What we know:
The protein has 548 residues and is an alpha+beta fold. The chain has two domains: 4-183, 3-Layer(aba) Sandwich (Creatine Amidinohydrolase, Chain A, domain 1), CATH 3.40.350.10; 187-544, Creatine Amidinohydrolase (Alpha-Beta Complex), CATH 3.90.230. Helices cover 35% and strands 12% of the residues. The protein is built from 19 helices and 16 strands. It has helices at 4-18, 21-24, 53-59, 94-99, 106-112, 124-134, 155-163, 174-183, 187-217, 220-224, 240-253, 340-359, 366-384, 393-399, 402-405, 422-425, 486-491, 502-508, 537-544, and strands at residues 28-33, 67-72, 84-89, 117-120, 139-141, 168-170, 264-267, 309-315, 318-319, 322-323, 326-332, 475-478, 481-483, 513-515, 518-522, 527-529. A hairpin with a 4-residue loop joins strand 15 (518-522) and strand 16 (527-529). Bound molecules: glycine and manganese (II) ion (2 copies). One manganese (II) ion binds next to loops. It comes from Asterophora parasitica. GO terms for molecular function: manganese ion binding; metalloaminopeptidase activity. Residues 2-150 form the Aminopeptidase P N-terminal domain.
Amino acid sequence: MYPASKHVQKTFEQLIALLPAMEKTKPQVILLAGEVLGFRNDTDRELTFRQESNFYYLTGCDVPSSFLLAAYQPGTSLEQKPPSVDLFIPEANEADIMWSVPPPSLEAAAQIHDVTRIDHASTLPEAIAAMLAALPGALVHTLTRDSPRFPTLPSEFISPIIANESAAATDLYLYAALHNARLTKDIHEIEEIRHANAISSRAHEVVMRVLGLTVKNGLKSAAAAAGRPLLPGEWLIEKEAEAEAIFIASCRREGSVHQAYPPIVAASTRASTLHYCCNDKEFAWGPVGPHDHYNNQPFVAKAKHVFPQVLLIDAGCEWRNYAADITRTMPVGNGGKFTPEARAIYSLVLEMQDASFALLKPGVHWDEVHRVCHTALIRGFQRLGIFRVGPNEKEILASGLSAAFFPHGVGHSLGLDVHDVPSVSKAVDKVTGKLVVFGQGREAAVEFENVDEEWGPPNCYEYLRLRRPLAQGMVVTVEPGIYFSPHLLGRAQAHTSPFVDSEALKRYEPVGGVRIEDVVHITEDTYQNLTTVRSDVEWVEGVCSGEL
Ligand code: GLY
Ligand code: MN
Ligand code: MN
């Protein structure tokens, strides 16, 4: 069963830690609305339901239009007297039963939810009145009210609290408390994330194996099926949309309802657009210019005749609302083998990832992991001749030039959301020593000793989503990449930089972009990789060429 009551307890602990001293001794209450069922535009056609992440964290409840009322009375420890957790779900009505799946009965819901009490949502006003009477002086915590980011808490529930003489309602603390609690995962959550990764890893492998079949068999099966739709076993991959369709189909077959984010399926130089998600272009059959989206030549049946290019797929599904986030970059054309330039860039991205893995353990600041990727990139570019060897590595890092090739962060927290708990992810920026965000009531400058040019300039860290030390139980992505984006290279004046050999850079630009992304769990003294699909060159080329 989903450990909702433990999550409520952990959130109360975080809440109390955030509160000013004078508020800590008051009875604490959490009042939260779950997501409502959405409809497509102005119609009665339901959208697929996805529970709001914070509500799911505290209830494990996937029933639309539900509410949570949890209370903790200080004076005893949370362990001795855990909070009460009351869940309110809607009553099934005739139309629900006829048109869709109705909410469960109270008895059925009690079997699957780890809460103190379950009742119908219509009884919530009475429960709030009883709570106000039993807990005089209560501080009632909500998420930001009237914000499009969270489900609306109807005024009939919040008005009696605001009107009450001794109680008070506040939305200053709950968001940060929830994110602090969600930052480290328990065993149940790790297993859900592991399963999302296992399904998504298989889906990535399926795409690679179908690419390999295309190389091996050409379009024979398609030709044989002329005149009727192709069956799934006959699908081959000749364009981005087909790779996306196979990835999603593979996840759905295994019971996953949602993708954790829209898949990014980018071939050729489109791989340099970080969050490209048009996924609507054919593979190019001839040389392509940067961001040339059109293939003007007739299709060439044998995939090995396709102009060699990479296919970057950044895709991960959800399993019971927990995310995976995996990127693999694979060869297309060239008989399913990377070109020498693509292989060199791919191997360098693997080196960046290995250097990151080698650092992972509790206590290591994430800025450090990010910096090691920049230094690995600079060393690698010097080895490949893209950067000149005269200037030393520190000079190049200090110039900020590497950010034009690796413009995003090395990773982020992952959990119920793919970019999880943003409000507590940027605790301390180690480069400038400034405390960036840490929830309400904790904004104070923190100075670090080792702030110097060895960190490189702030632009190298601009899009780093995590700025804090790792802790046991955190789940993060490790996703270095190297891109040849005409826009970013132009802005950085890379071709005229004294650090760059422009002719060498031109040879690598057609690679477009390479990213390799795995999800890891930070353990007591090291890490565990939750992503199972392999990424070594030998295996990726073996599968994509149909040889393995
Ligand atoms: N899938 C988006 C990211 O990797 O952050
Ligand atoms: Mn990703
Ligand atoms: Mn990611």
